[in-house]
């Protein structure tokens, strides 16, 4: 803002334009009436920082007389906090820039401030600014109130979410003990129980599980409704997703009365979706179908768009169960709504599953609908392309997950007596339950009651696996996990997170080999631990055209505890790499088609295999030159012969203890 150079008169001659601004006269005088009519605050000010002409509305708004307003630089009426911005804005006007929607506060005669919003244009010929201001104080006050209300609503919402998260944690911790210890007793490990005691205990456990389900679902629903859940999309193959969901029900439908089938349109492109959330919806729907279909058939169907066979259009779960009466169809998606279809007055479940499913579907941009006939069955459908008509998937490829299909993944290696597992959990009951479960697997167990102790014990004992609680006093599980992953000696130890917070925080447990919810079902924990052990086992790919040699080397490697895959040619090995990532490759030199040396050079072209340790195994007597060349391209060159088993053993142990990836044995071993 320019400082005024002189006190102005009511009539001022603008320096260059010589126009008189005496009120009622001169160039602007003829617009006096116009000024008087305006509800807005019109003014003409000079580049010198003084008002020259003001509409009467100024006096009404600020309470000052025209004379008072004209006698002081206008910036003196501006709120001290807005003066700098006002001066800058005036400066821009003087330089020729127009002002649009500039806000500042003007003092009134009684010392209050009014908010004004300005539009102005410069008149450089006359060194004047023509401006109009509007009193927006009411709007500002309203906006401030609105902001405060929004902030307080957000704070309340945050508090609610925190309360829910905390409360659910507090409720789940003792429940874990109730369920876990009931399970221990029911499994017969806690001594003999009479039939009646057994029966009571089963009720304790099933009610505990019910309560836990309720707590988890309330939490889920609250989070979805509070839009607290993030949608994380990825490209998802719907056939895989459906199969994974179906597999989770294998155990429940083994009685042979119900058949669970999949019908998936062929040639579907993957869709971009939040895998976890879509799985959760489908899991709820199939769970209901299983629950309400005492006998018959459940079909999970994925249909294609009628106009584009590659585009998935819907996923539906159809059952031939008890169906839903018409009058109930409208309400089953409401919270806590259930139909007492069996007329028993006792209904299992929480009545929240469908409410959550519909909210989740909406969150993903989908529609969840239902059709049902009592006594015939129900069909729940997730419309992936909203607005499309129900398309029938007549030409679907039918595959069956027949009742009684063998359970997945039998454990190849059940002797874990030499495995040490470190359990880190601040809750004594949880430690006891996990220890019990791990002893059942035959593992040795070490427990830590805090993150600090966990870290110390991990460093001292370098266990084969760690189970980790997340919500502990400092350092908490997340921090501990990060510290494990940061230490070279601990980095490779698989960590299975077992926590109340696992459901909500699975994504934040970065680097965990598995994430399990408390209370952990025994089977689930065993599977995760075994997978953890397997994951920590070295993976060896053997490439040799001789079946006998493949078998021999495979046996040597298995003795070292490795997971082995064998192939008979270099070509086959290269394509196997897409599904099997080895820690070391044993390759024969002389093979038909692609020989060992050619295989290695092709292997090195794959970015992830640039450093992959390769051991060349050959029956050929190599010359010094050839040996030198091959040694440079590999970790070692070994002669086939009676010493092969020992040499391979030594070499691999050295490779693995050096952290693999580099050259463990630089010299050729012969
Ligand atoms: P719940 O946990 O009780 O199953 P849901 O919200 O998932 O809660 O389901 C609400 C009600 O809708 C169920 O209690 C049941 O009466 C009805 N329902 C849901 N799915 C089916 C189905 N496939 N067949 C028959 N009734 C169903």
How would you describe the overall organization of this protein?
The chain is α/β, with parallel strands linked by helices and 670 residues long. Helices cover 40% and strands 20% of the residues. The protein has 21 helices and 23 strands. Helix 6 (137-186) packs antiparallel against helix 7, helix 9 (275-291) packs antiparallel against helix 11 (353-363) and helix 17 packs across helix 21 (644-657). The radius of gyration is 38 Å and the shape is extended. Residues 1-20, 387-413 and 660-670 have low confidence and may be disordered. The protein binds adenosine-5'-diphosphate.
In short:
With 670 residues, the chain is of the alpha/beta class. It is built from 21 helices and 23 strands. The model is unreliable at 1-20, 387-413 and 660-670 (pLDDT under 50).
Rg calculated over all Cα atoms: 38 Å
Bound molecules: adenosine-5'-diphosphate
β-strand amount = 15-25%
Q: Note the total helix count.
A: 21
End-to-end C-alpha gap: 89 Å
Going across the biggest sheet, name each strand in turn.
11-12-10-9-7-13
How many distinct beta strands?
Answer: 23
From the spread of the alpha carbons, the general shape counts as extended
Stretches where pLDDT falls below 50 for ≥5 residues? Answer: 1-20, 387-413, 660-670
Derived structural class: alpha/beta
């Amino acid at each position: 803002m320019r400082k005024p150079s002189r006190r102005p008169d009511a009539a001022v001659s603008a320096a260059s334009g010589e126009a008189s601004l005496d009120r009622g006269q001169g160039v602007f005088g003829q617009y006096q009436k116009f000024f008087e009519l305006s509800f807005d605050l019109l003014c003409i000010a000079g580049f010198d920082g003084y008002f020259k002409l003001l509409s009467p509305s100024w006096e009404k708004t600020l309470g000052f007389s025209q004379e008072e307003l004209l006698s002081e630089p206008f910036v003196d009426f501006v709120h001290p906090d807005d003066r700098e911005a006002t001066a800058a804005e005036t400066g821009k006007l003087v330089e020729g820039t127009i002002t649009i929607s500039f806000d500042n506060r003007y003092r009134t005669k009684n010392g209050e401030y009014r908010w004004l919003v300005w539009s102005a244009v410069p008149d450089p010929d006359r060194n004047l600014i023509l401006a109009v201001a509007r009193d927006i104080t009411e709007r500002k006050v309203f906006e401030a109130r609105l902001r405060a209300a929004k902030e307080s609503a957000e704070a309340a919402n945050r508090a609610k979410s925190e309360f829910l998260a905390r409360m659910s944690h507090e409720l789940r911790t003792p429940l874990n003990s109730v369920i876990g210890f009931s399970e221990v007793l029911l499994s017969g490990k806690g001594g003999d129980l009479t039939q009646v005691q057994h029966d009571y205990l089963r009720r304790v456990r099933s009610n505990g599980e019910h309560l836990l389900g309720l707590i988890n679902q309330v939490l889920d629903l609250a989070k979805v409704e509070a839009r607290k859940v993030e949608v994380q999309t990825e490209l998802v193959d719907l056939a895989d997703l459906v199969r994974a969901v179906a597999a989770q029900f294998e155990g429940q439908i083994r009685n042979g009365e119900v058949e669970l089938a999949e019908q998936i349109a062929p040639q579907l492109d993957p869709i971009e979706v939040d895998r976890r959330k879509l799985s959760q919806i489908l899991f709820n729907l199939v769970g209901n179908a299983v629950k309400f279909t005492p006998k018959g058939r459940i079909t999970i169907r994925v249909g294609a768009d009628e106009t584009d066979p590659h585009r998935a259009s819907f996923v539906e779960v159809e059952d031939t169960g008890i169906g839903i009466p018409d009058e109930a169809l409208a309400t089953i998606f409401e919270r806590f709504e259930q139909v007492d279809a069996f007329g028993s007055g006792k209904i299992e479940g929480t009545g929240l599953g469908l409410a959550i499913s519909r909210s989740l579907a909406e969150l993903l941009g989908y529609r969840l609908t239902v059709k049902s006939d009592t006594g015939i069955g129900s069909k729940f459908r997730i419309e992936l392309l909203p607005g499309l008509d129900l398309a029938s998937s007549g030409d679907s490829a039918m595959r069956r997950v027949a009742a009684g299909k063998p359970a997945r993944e039998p454990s190849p290696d059940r002797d874990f007596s030499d495995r040490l597992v470190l359990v880190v959990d601040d809750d004594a009951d949880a430690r006891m339950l996990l220890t019990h479960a791990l002893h059942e697997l035959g593992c040795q167990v070490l427990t830590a009651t805090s993150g600090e102790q966990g870290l110390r014990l991990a460093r001292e004992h370098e266990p084969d696996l760690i189970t980790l609680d997340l919500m502990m006093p400092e350092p908490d599980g997340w921090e501990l996990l990060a510290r494990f992953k940061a230490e070279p000696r601990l980095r490779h130890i698989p960590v299975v997170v077992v926590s109340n917070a696992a459901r909500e925080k699975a994504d934040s447990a970065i680097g965990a080999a598995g994430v399990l919810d408390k209370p952990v079902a025994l089977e689930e924990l065993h599977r995760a631990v075994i997978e953890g052990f397997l994951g920590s086992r070295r993976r060896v790919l053997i490439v040799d055209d001789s079946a006998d040699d493949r078998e021999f080397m495979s046996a040597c490697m298995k003795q070292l505890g490795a997971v082995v895959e064998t192939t008979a040619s270099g070509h086959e090995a290269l394509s196997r790499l897409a599904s099997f990532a080895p820690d070391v490759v044993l390759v024969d030199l002389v093979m038909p088609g692609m020989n060992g040396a050619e295989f290695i050079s092709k292997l090195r072209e794959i970015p992830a295999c640039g450093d992959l340790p390769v051991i060349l195994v050959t029956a050929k007597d190599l010359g010094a030159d050839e040996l030198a060349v091959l040694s440079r391209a590999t970790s070692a060159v070994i002669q086939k012969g009676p010493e092969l088993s020992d040499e391979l053993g030594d070499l691999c142990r050295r490779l693995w203890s050096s952290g693999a990836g580099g050259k463990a044995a630089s010299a050729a071993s012969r």
